[in-house]
Design a protein that fits this description.
It contains ten helices and twelve strands. By secondary structure, the protein is α/β, with parallel strands linked by helices. The chain folds into two domains: about 180 residues, 3-Layer(aba) Sandwich (Rossmann fold), CATH 3.40.50; about 80 residues, Rossmann fold (3-Layer(aba) Sandwich), CATH 3.40.50. The protein has a six-stranded mixed β-sheet with strand order 8-9-10-5-11-12, with helices on both faces. Strands 4-3-6-7 form a four-stranded antiparallel β-sheet, covered by helices on one side. It is globular and about 60 Å long. The termini are far apart.
């Protein structure tokens, strides 16, 4: 399968220390982090993290193991409350929000370790992601009133529509835990999309995938962005994937941003190279 051609995107400054794609500059960034940080006891895990994501940007967050990437995701989704700094989601400060409220406001995520309801069907896993859009209450559900069946029919059709993005509609009745690893990864992304996000966070989506599956994933991430007109932020160690589809990349090391820019700029950045490969000894 051919690898999608990476768009050559120009990144421009927004009114802060951040950059976003030029096409999104006339709109409020979907996400902006300003001087974000968190301490665990005496340990500073993330410090002075600044990043913006345009409304239709595919962005990457990379860095060596232990750099603090997943901690940033946990801050964005309010698994952790920041010690300092500000997170703006579509211009709104999320300081007072919890995990559920942030999800309803527009952030959905996947995890490093797959977290599906393995004993439920593929379709039911997606329907769980549709909970924000279900209109009937508990009484209507218990009594199986007409409103319940209308909503269930709507959820059924929407679940199949979302599954079709990954050509998985024919697996709707299968048990989620019986799917191959790559299909489970895709299902987790579909469930996240079911919450109707404006920003999709993907935590190592290509982990455990073979090259063919990774190439297909790259195509599907671009397809998701284009179809839903949303932003995507991904953590990934597969540099072919990151450099192939990301427009802006932020590099973390020891909890601090060491570089931001386009894929070409990041690949040529000596600080990034040193963080990944170590400092070369001078030849005497």
């Amino acid at each position: 399968m051919s690898k999608p051609e990476r768009p050559r995107t120009k990144l421009v400054p927004v009114p802060s220390t951040n950059i976003i794609p030029e096409r999104d500059v006339d709109k409020t960034p979907i996400l902006e982090c300003r001087h974000l940080g968190i301490d665990f006891g005496g340990l500073t895990a993330v410090n002075d993290f600044n990043m913006a994501i345009g409304r239709t940007e595919i962005a990457g967050l990379i860095g060596p193991n232990g750099a603090g990437k997943t901690t940033v995701f946990n801050l964005l989704t309010k698994v952790y409350q920041p010690t300092r700094g500000t997170i703006l989601l579509d211009g709104v400060d999320t300081h007072s929000m919890n995990t559920v409220q942030v999800n309803k406001a527009g952030i959905a995520r996947t995890f490093q370790n797959i977290r599906l309801f393995s004993n439920l069907s593929v379709e039911d896993n997606v329907k769980i992601g549709l909970h924000n859009q279900i209109q009937y209450g508990m009484c209507k559900g218990i009594l199986r009133l007409p409103a319940y069946w209308r909503e269930e029919r709507t959820a059924h059709h929407r679940a199949l529509e979302l599954l079709s993005i990954f050509d998985m509609a024919d697996l709707a009745g299968h048990q989620a835990g019986s799917l191959p690893y790559g299909a489970q990864r895709r299902l987790e992304i579909v469930r996240a999309l079911a919450t109707n996000p404006s920003l999709l966070l993907l935590d190592e989506p290509a982990a455990g995938m073979n090259p063919s599956e990774t190439a297909e994933l790259m195509e599907n991430i671009v397809k998701i962005r284009d179809t839903f007109q949303i932003a995507v932020l991904l953590i990934e160690h597969d540099m072919n994937l990151v450099m192939g589809i990301c427009e802006g990349i932020c590099v973390l090391n020891f909890g601090q941003v060491i570089a931001k820019g386009t894929p070409d700029e990041i690949q040529a950045n000596p600080t990034v190279i040193e963080a990944y490969l170590g400092k070369q000894k001078e030849v005497e």
